[in-house]
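agent: user wants the full assembly modeled, not chains individually. Plan: 1) parse entity lines 2) check alphabet per entity 3) run joint structure prediction 4) return tokens. Steps 1-2 passed, three entities, 436 residues total. Proceeding.
--- entities ---
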Amino acid sequence: MSKEKIVLYWMRRDLRLHDNSAFYYALRSGHRVLPIFVFDTSILDHLPRRDARVVFIHRELTEIQAQLRAMGSDIHFHFGTPQDAFAQLLKTYSVEAVYTNRDYEPYAQNRDKEIYAMLEAQGIPFIGKKDHVIFDKNEVIKDDGKPYTVFTPYSRKWKSNLRPYHYKAYPNAKYFDQLLKIHLSDIPTLASMRFEDMELAFPEKTVSTTLLSQYGEKRDIPSIRGTSRLSIHLRFGTVSIRQLVQQALPHEKWLNELIWRDFYQAIMYHFPHSVTGAFKPQYDRIPWRDDQEAFQRWCIGTTGYPIVDAGMRELNTTGFMHNRVRMIVASFLTKHLLIDWRWGERYFAEKLLDYDLASNVGGWQWAASSGCDAAPYFRVFNPESQTDKFDPDYRYIRQWVPEYGTPAYPKPIVDHKFARERVLATYKEALGAQSN
DNA sequence: TTTTGAGTTGTTCGA
DNA sequence: GTCGAACAACTCAAA
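--- prediction returned ---
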């Protein structure tokens, strides 16, 4: 019996069936479509047993499998490496093509190169589509053909390039009859993959127009719900960026945040060195302090600076931190404590549910002043003034640092004035020094 | 090629 | 309390 000819749609960080580019093109390919997902052990092996992001992915995929089964179709799961998954699938099916949405992270780029080579050897096209961003890495570039490194001109070009078809939803549902009719195994349980289930409530997938219209004035106040909390859904593609842009168009401040996301994705692609080192190389000369104890106090939120500690405790407790506070704690670690931004970046990577490599590295390098279009190095956030401005009644601080104001609360880990002068002198000397 | 204006999110100092 | 300038120069983008 000859094997059935199908195309595969490989789902990764685009966990949705609606308005999904690669899935759409697979459905329009003229062949039956089998969605697949790989629980990639080369990633999962490095994660702790209790990991909220794994729980999130698992929940979403369980729902997706239910939706597909309601149509008489299914999704194929593999627990292992993508290489093994494809080796197995190619034995079972006659695969005409593999469709997937592009992922710009270095790990993903390498993985996809390998898969591409593997499929190419068998004459199977591996087709990557744009889905994660509105504009791909080379679609918003300067007139001389080079990538932007400054946000404002990038955003102007982004906006002038934007046409309605860029954010038009892909009508996937119209073509669901192209799905392969099949019944496959249930999604592997979390326990079978050595993970624990967790009782968690994740943010919803929608944002109200009220919130968007008030975003500009409320987004900096961490004690109120002024931000969309959609970041985790953008991270895993459980919402579509096109749909969000459509909704964001009348709300410029919030639209800008989505443009920042495209910007940092493009920066990561064009300047991969900035994932592991300073975007501006001279900032790699800064002699960071190797102070494990101070770093530990920053991590657990006992620096004696209440706004910093509140932020870190919110992160440790919920896997989320308000954006304004992210800037404050990042400035504090890099400038007050003079600790390498990579340490902080790694800690965020471990803790943030919405962790996204490009945005996280971009944000940290912005705070450390080493990034493209970063804050000038002499801009040192004053935790007290930030509190006066953005948490004047200490509502956020009291929520996360209940012992603030009692003798149980620690004394400041370092004096502000001293720390400020120290970082200015250190940066100045390091940046002034000759590179050779 | 040269020139010009501009550049996410701040802080401090002194008038 | 309020306001403007200095912070430190540099690099980028576009005309």
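agent: reporting back. The mean pLDDT of chain A is 95. Residues 142-144, 148-150, 152-153, 373, 376-379, 424, 428, 431 of chain A lie near DNA strand C (CB under 10 Å from a C1').
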